[in-house]
Amino acid sequence: MAVGVDGSNTNGLGGRITLSVVITCIVAATSGLIFGYDIGISGGVTTMVPFLKKFFPLVLRKAAEAKTNMYCVYDSQVLTAFTSSLYIAGLATSLLASRLTAAFGRRNMMVLGGCTFLAGATINGGAANIAMLIIGRILLGFGVGLTNQATPLYLSEMAPPKWRGAFNTGFEFFLGVGVLAANCINYGTAKMSWGWRLSLGLAAAPAAIMTLGALLISDTPASLVERGKLAQAKQALLRARGHNTDIEPELAELIRSSEIARAANEEPFVTIFERQYRPHLAMSIAIPFFQQLTGINIMAFYAPVLFQSVGFGSDSALIAAIILGLVNLGSILVSMFVVDRCGRRFLFIEGGVQMFLCQVGAACVLAATAGTSGTERIGKGCAILVLVLMCIYVAGFGLSWGPLCWLITSEILPMTIRTTGQSINVAMNFAATFVLSQTFLTMLCHFKYGAFLFYASWIAVMTIFVVLFLPETKGIPMDSMHVVWERHWYWQKFVNKESY
Ligand code: BGC
Q1: How far is the CA of 380 from the centre of ligand 1 (A)?
Q2: What mean pLDDT comes out for the span 160-167?
Q3: What is the pLDDT of residues 336-348, one digit of tens each?
Q4: Distance (Å, rounded) from C-alpha 109 to C-alpha 98?
Q5: Which residue among 35, 73, 84, 467 has the highest number of C-beta atoms inside a 10 angstrom radius?
Q6: Of 73-87, 335-349, 366-380, 449-463, which range is least confident?
Q7: How far apart, in Å, do the first and last CA atoms of the chain sit?
Q8: Cβ neighbour number for residue 324 with a 10 Å cutoff
């Protein structure tokens, strides 16, 4: 077995970082760009007047009405459906992706996802009517459904176990770069009459970058072994770990895990419901569900809308979104450097407390200034205070739930249920994003500042969940992960060691 009593790796392969594995993982992590670009672009585009005039004239009419409640200006179901259609498509695709990723490999799914996203971006850039807009977004959804499923698995499988957290965080880092790039582009295009076309069409650029990159890298040793390509797996492992490293113990572990997976030989969506996989199933559902209940996408999608409706002009709203993007990126970098040292649990708890305090703070400021009627615009000073609180909140997310949501599920799943658990994670993520973004503007309109308290309460719940139920996984090789459940006060009664 490749793990010592303290959970440390005894193969001697835990910590070696080669140039090849670094380059390969950076290239793979660029898949995050397309998801991030989309998250960042849609919020800005839906505040552009020429875009609204062409596709959603009703929203503009409402905004022009005197004395509109500031919490309710953007409360339009069709506008929200535009943003959300991607998530429904992504959800369906990610469930399908479980079998595809197991059968064709992680890398090939990244290539396919990139191509589909490219097609969606092209249609959106040239959209002449709402139908084209929605079809384009569905294709984007297919794309991110595939890449979000395959890439985190790719990174966790490729990384040396000791630094798996840092490598996997690369995905969230590029996601953040995508969000920031999109915000800057929106800022530049907001004044052009056809700026929205440029914003939507430019999604083709990150798609082209990640697709070309994915074509240049090999699949992970684990995926190659899973697909019976032993010679290629050995080559890939040698390249990743270094030619003078003894890769035989790691290869033997991979072969053993893949044999167990093959012996299970059942429908993986049935297997994952077996009692022994209860902790994995619980985490694959709870982690993405909680991640969305931090309220992050509400901030990302609607940061410009939100800032405009709490008193910023349309320019300053985009600048505010850019500031949030930079803060997010900085905090992800910090997370990357500490996740394998301080561990996952520390970051979850620290980030949770930080986010909780900020949401409560923002609710208090809005309650004190805009009140419940929402008809008075809040002053510049208070709007800036909300922005500062949002920055600290976003930093908390970038440290914790942002990157860790992709890391935890991709590292805890045994080969038998790996692609299935990851599919559930991504599908849950999309489902929760869909429901929350579909309901947020109505919620803001009715609950007013209480919307922030709603998320604060969930952040408290998820932090307690982590304290009680999430074991520390730093440094443990993926094929030896059973040790963390075996030692856990609650999960130990479920786990069957032979399944690893
Ligand atoms: C989440 C996204 C979110 C993004 C923010 C990701 O980890 O899954 O829903 O928009 O982080 O940067």
Answers
A1: 28
A2: 95
A3: 999 999 999 999 9
A4: 10
A5: 35
A6: 366-380
A7: 10
A8: 26
For residue range 266-304, list pLDDT tens digits in order. Answer: 788 899 999 999 999 999 999 999 999 999 977 665 566
Expressed in angstroms and rounded, the spacing between residue 51 Cα and the centre of ligand 1 is 25
- The answer to whether the pTM exceeds 0.85 is yes
Identify the three-state secondary structure at position 327. Answer: helix
Class of domain 19-499: mainly alpha
Q: Give percent helix, percent strand, percent coil of the chain, each to the nearest 5.
A: 80, 0, 20
Spell out which residues line ligand 1, taking CB within 6 angstroms: 39, 172, 175-176, 179, 291, 296-297, 300, 328, 402, 405, 429, 433
Q: How many CA atoms lie within 13 A of 328 on its CB side?
A: 29
More confident residue, 34 or 312: 34
Tokens of 184: 């800057």
Q: Where are the domains of the chain?
A: 19-499
**CA 175 to ligand 1: nearest atom:** 12
Q: Which residue among 172, 322, 408 is best mutated to probe the pocket of ligand 1, counting the most ligand atoms within 8 A of its Cβ?
A: 172
114, amino acid identity: G
Kindly report the length of the chain: 500
Residue 432 amino acid letter? A
Q: Probe ligand 1: pick from 39, 332, 404, max atoms within 8 Å of CB?
A: 39
CA–centroid distance, 32 to ligand 1, in Å, is 10
Two tokens at 371?
A: 């009140």
